[in-house]
């Protein structure tokens, strides 16, 4: 169409806190997490680690410095809502594109996210995404950082877009055998509407203050998965 020092006392929480709901996290400056990110796109496979550290917290926003683990370049500052939602600007307006949690999280709770953006990338002039989120319930999960009791949130929906019209080039040999001469033909593809489906899953752990695992999947109109990204917690260090 974008982890092992672990404080055991934070990971092994009493069962009572998992009784029914999860409240909004008390995120603090210098809270830090390292995640393993695995991306599958067609036949391509990539895995890398990402460090994220809270720079500051305001009433409505969390500013997080994000960088590849071990990078010597300055981190990228990313703005999140106080509920870990994302609302980048498009055409001069803030557009909510991801809202994985609506606190308090209660089993069975649901909400919808729908948005349209203009010129999201060179391939599309517009894109529209519609998703339905549901708090599925508590379950045990294991990630590189350890075992957790997490509240799972799932989202399913559709995406659609108008292409900008792509050009494809093909080459063929011409002339005498072995001459090496080629000719190139460019075929323009007219703009057209395309669509597919999407899936999201998040495993939220109150003591970690965010999801310890997330899965993002996108499918073509033929039901073939074209993209999958899995993010898993490797380590964390929370501010006192």
Which key features would you list for this structure?
two-stranded antiparallel sheet, ten-stranded antiparallel sheet, 240 residues, YmcC-like fold, disordered N terminus
Question: How would you sum up this structure, described in words?
Answer:
- The chain is an all-beta fold and 240 residues long.
- It has a single domain, classed as YmcC-like fold (Beta Barrel), CATH 2.40.360.
- The chain has one helix at 8-11; strands at 21-22, 32-41, 44-57, 61-68, 76-81, 89-90, 93-94, 105-106, 110-121, 124-143, 146-163, 167-173, 182-188, 193-205, 210-219, 225-237.
- The strands form 4 sheets. The protein has a 10-stranded antiparallel beta sheet, with no helix packed on it. A two-stranded antiparallel sheet has the order 1-8. The protein has a two-stranded antiparallel sheet with strand order 6-7.
